[in-house]
Amino acid sequence: MKRLGAAVLVMAVGCAxxxxxxxxxxxxxxxxxxxxxxLNERIPFAKTQVQWPQLTLAFSSSDxxxxxxxxxxxxxxxxxxxxxxxxxxxxTGGILTVLGGTLLVGRTLFSDTxxxxxxxxxxRYGASSRDVATGWGLGLLIAGVPAVVAGIVxxxxxxxxxxTRKTDELLSLREVPCQPKPVDGVVELAxxxxxxxxxxxxxxxxxxxxxxxxxxxSFVGLALDGTPVTLEEEDLDRLxxxxxCATLLATPVDPQALAGEARxxxxxxxxxxxxxxGCTTLPGAPAQPLLEAIEGALGSTAL
Amino acid sequence: xxxxxxxxxxxxxxxxxxxxxxDAAVCRDVVVRLCQSAGACxxxxxxxxxxxxxxxxxxxxxxxxxxxxxxxxxxxxxxLECREPLLSWGMSTDHPPTCVDxxxxxxxxxxxxxxxxxxxx
Lengths: 303, 121
Fold this sequence. Notes:
The complex is a heterodimer of chains A (303) and B (121). Chain A contains eight helices and twelve strands. With 303 residues, chain A is an alpha+beta fold. In chain A, the strands form three sheets. In chain A, strands 1, 2, 3, 6, 9 and 12 form a six-stranded mixed β-sheet that branches. A four-stranded antiparallel β-sheet of chain A has the order 8-7-10-11, with no helix packed on it. In chain A, α6 packs across α8. The longest helix of chain A is centred in the middle third of the chain and has 29 residues. Chain A is rod-shaped, with a radius of gyration of 47 Å. Chain B is mainly alpha-helical. In chain B, α3 packs antiparallel against α5 and α3 runs parallel beside α6. The radius of gyration of chain B is 17 Å and the shape is globular. The chains are: A alpha+beta (303), B mainly alpha (121).
């Protein structure tokens, strides 16, 4: 009978639900680390080298290396267990239990004489006051005790639990070309306004273009074996400077013409001076005579 | 407490009713109810062949004024069965049965009605 009573209580209490509210709090930074991995996506790159009057395009096939910077944090998961009805269950169950227990304990105070003022359909007298008190007492106990136990269990299970775990966060991501390998192939100079230049073959992973060739070619982009070639910004600037200087330095220096231009179109000549200065950055480029002539023409005009 | 738990099914069964009422008490209960309706329903008084003092007449006629009275014919079970229409207002005798219920008692149970009209055979 005790086991049966315990089983009934467990069944009554075991299914009592608790409201759980979870929140996450970020703790301190534990460490940072970087992770590098190749994406195995090789794409063609080209670097430029100038030794006037030649521009060398060095082709290579590079992988893309992704560098990830990670931060490892401590993270607290805080679970708050609560039940709004637990206190009400304890108080209500407590009242019912006390009433039921009082009736049962004090049942001997009630009369054991049957109620002779009424006879039911079966010909029985009405129950005695003691029987009625006992029935009510048992009923109230049966309703009250599980409620009290359930409420107490719920109250004891209420509260906060804290679980700490590590969490990882990606802080930064950088993708750069890596593991370059020289590569040969057919180079197409494409995208210019004029007729497309004929494709050219590389030799030892390089294509050499002279200033005269560059001046006559019109192209915007490069493709190696049909795949667009990527140039980094520095190499792209150098290519454009070489192309400009190939045109600028092709004309012989004429101080008289420059003096005339200084008078008629000084702004244009100043711009030409800036371009000539840019040409001096190219190794071996004979830009100095032109630059001095322009300076001279502009200087005489100023006087 | 342990004894209570052991006997709780019996307690539950008996909590709403007490011991069997003796035949004399059952008979007197029917007499009270019949006489309550006889005062309000003239047909009942006629069918039971009553004089001025209803309860005294029926108690004397049936013999159930004696505490040792016991039903023979009709039996206790039959009287209880026929008494049910008279309980439509409850177990208590504070409220008299309606004329319809009293008439049902007399028409549906002629043997029990005859017992109250003519007494124990």
